[in-house]
Amino acid sequence: MRLKSALIVVLGLLTTLTHGQFSSFSTDSTEFFEQSKDWLATVDRGDAKRFMEEFETQWYGGKFSSNQRMIVYKTANLILKQKLKPYPDYKAYLTSLSNFFRKEQPDGAFEDWHQTIDQLAARNKQKFSDFLKMSSNLFNENIIFQSSSTVWQASAPKFKFKFKDKTPLVVFEKIDLKCMSKGDSGVIYQTAGTFDPLKNIWLGKGGKVTWKRAGLDPKETYAELKNYKIGLKSAGYNADSVLFYNSYFEEPILGVLAEKVLSNRGPDKVVFPRFESYDKRLIIKNIFQDIDYDGGFTMEGGRLIGKGTFEELAKITIKYEGKPFITAESIIYVINATSIASEKAELQIKLGEDSIYHPGIELKYVHEGLEKRKLTLIRGGQGTGQSPYFNSFHKIDMEFEALSWRIGDDNMNFGTLMGSTENKAFFESQNYFSQYRYDRLTGMGVNPLVRIKAFVKKNGSRNFKAIDLATYLGKTMSQLKPLLYSLNNMGLLVYNSAKGTISVKSRMYRWIGARSGRMDFDVIQFVSEPESGVKYNGSLSLLNYDLALEGVKNITLSRAQGTKVFPDEGKIILKKNRSFTFKGVILAGRTEVYGDEFSFDYDKFRLNLIETNWIRFFVKRKEKHTSG
Length: 628
Known about the structure:
Blueprint: H1 2-20, H2 29-41, H3 45-59, H4 66-81, H5 86-100, H6 109-123, H7 125-141, E1 143-146, E2 150-154, E3 159-164, E4 167-181, E5 184-196, E6 201-205, E7 208-210, E8 222-224, E9 227-231, E10 236-245, E11 253-260, E12 274-277, E13 282-288, E14 291-300, E15 303-307, E16 314-320, E17 323-330, E18 332-335, E19 339-351, E20 354-366, E21 374-378, E22 389-391, E23 396-399, E24 402-406, E25 411-415, E26 425-429, H8 435-442, H9 448-459, E27 463-465, H10 466-473, H11 477-489, E28 493-496, E29 501-504, H12 506-515, E30 525-528, E31 538-541, E32 547-549, E33 555-558, E34 563-574, E35 580-588, E36 591-601, E37 606-617
Antiparallel strand pairs: 1-2, 2-4, 3-4, 4-5, 5-6, 6-9, 7-8, 8-10, 10-11, 11-12, 12-14, 13-14, 14-15, 14-16, 15-18, 16-17, 17-19, 18-19, 19-20, 20-21, 20-22, 21-24, 22-23, 23-26, 24-25, 25-31, 26-30, 27-29, 28-29, 31-32, 32-34, 33-34, 34-35, 35-36, 36-37
Helix pairs in contact: 2-3, 4-6, 5-7, 6-7
């Protein structure tokens, strides 16, 4: 135990003696080198030997001028005077010196750097070593910040050191500032800035960001920065008041840029850089041929995201023969070089003074390839996505899976998606009434249609906020929504879930009146179920708005009178206001008529026998009675 204590005392004395061999560094280059080696060896002899062998080639290699050597002696003595440590402080200084001369540095950088570190050594010992580590990386590879996951690097050594308000700063002229993280990288081209190495903050000025890594031409799509700030510990940043340039716009757009370097996902999956316009009503004429866009937008990687608000939805307008024909409004559109898509869009197709309307359809447009210029609208999903189309020209509600139209064609097709097993579609008169459907709504209490009618009377309008109806009914919105979706899908009201609005349709009042026996109704449904090989349930002519339906086996016109029609080959032509033409069989009571040309006039509710081939009557025989 005494021997162990004695060894500790001796080692301590040796260390003290080593320190005591010099009170300051010599201005003789050879003696300075040996003193540096000895001081480092007091902590780690092996590392000191290896390191000083590397430093020797720099120190004796003719790279230091006599003036620079004097500066080194002065700084080394300041480190000694401030009682900084050989490890990590002094070694970090010598490492930085070595790296300084490995590459060409800016004029005056050596002197400016030493003025900075001299002040830092005197004022902020705690950050001294960190600053020197940064300096070493900067001199060696122009790296201004490095962590285990993120590197920020300048493209060239165009910098100056300065000390301001007790803070060391590195000021850069025009460079490219590159961030590397997780196998990906982002660049701000031709930017200038000031780097605070103690806070790891970059204050930038000017510069250009492109969408090259998203596969877009950097000459066509880019953003110009003004003043911005980056916390370099992060692999990203935000910048306000950025000007965005893109071939879609004649003038640059003002907005916010967000950049984040993530793992390399490939151009089609990149979601940064991201730019969002301040203006929420930007107009892009002919974003594709015959398609205009109106709304705010965000550029996310290679995708242009059209954005609206609940008050002002983003809008797509599609033209036919040079005039607005289809409008689709949505919170979000995803737009890239070859397509437009929206998961949920409020849609209107103009048919003269009338229209086809859907409150929440999935929209897809493909500009190139096999489906060039093809628009597809898909019903389904949840909520208002299951709503029928409301057709005011033919006065029917339409339920089919997909509407397809090649923009510019004279026909629009209604049917199913490729590969679908369901080929049935329903085209139902807006005056259709089913007591079964009505009574199913009633449940155990008052029918909700009656309560909504009472609310409309109190409210004074058929158009109102859904939350107001919920309050009136004593329900929360989450409790009310299933009912609203159901009534919407039955064509009794229009519920816009995005805007939170309700518009009650006349059909609801007809249902209430029909159930009480005070209002007429009809039972007309066109059920389309085509045979194999028939591509569509229906096709709408844009020349005269005739709707050609396929697979219609029969149509009931009157249950009371037993009037039905059976179209040949299941084909009919539906015209304005539920009138239609067909060839085939009419069954009216005990009379059966076959012909090549018949029509039904809905306004007069009358069948017209234009070209009749034969008529057949069914006579009911009287039964003979015999007495016993």
